[in-house]
Amino acid sequence: MRNFLLSLVALMISFSLNAQEKVQMADGLRAEGKIYVVVAVMLVIFLSVAIYLFSIDKRVKKLEKDK
């Protein structure tokens, strides 16, 4: 268990160290104003998946209620 925790901590530290580097693609998109297009597309995708999941959940609840 101790080895697992140590490896998990080491993994988290390595992720935080990599997160400190600048992302050139994001800086380029932000400089050209295209970052808003990326954010809008991601928002549309997220909202459509969320709406789909909620509709599936409603259908499943209705089926469970009918049984």
Automatic annotation (TrEMBL):
Asked whether the keyword Transmembrane is assigned, the reply is: yes
Transmembrane ranges, per UniProt, are: 35-55
Signal sequence span is 1-19
Looking at the record's lineage, which domain of life comes first?
Answer: Bacteria
Q: Name one Pfam family in it.
A: CcmD_alt
Q: Which UniProt keywords apply?
A: Membrane, Signal, Transmembrane, Transmembrane helix
Protein name stated in the entry? CcmD family protein
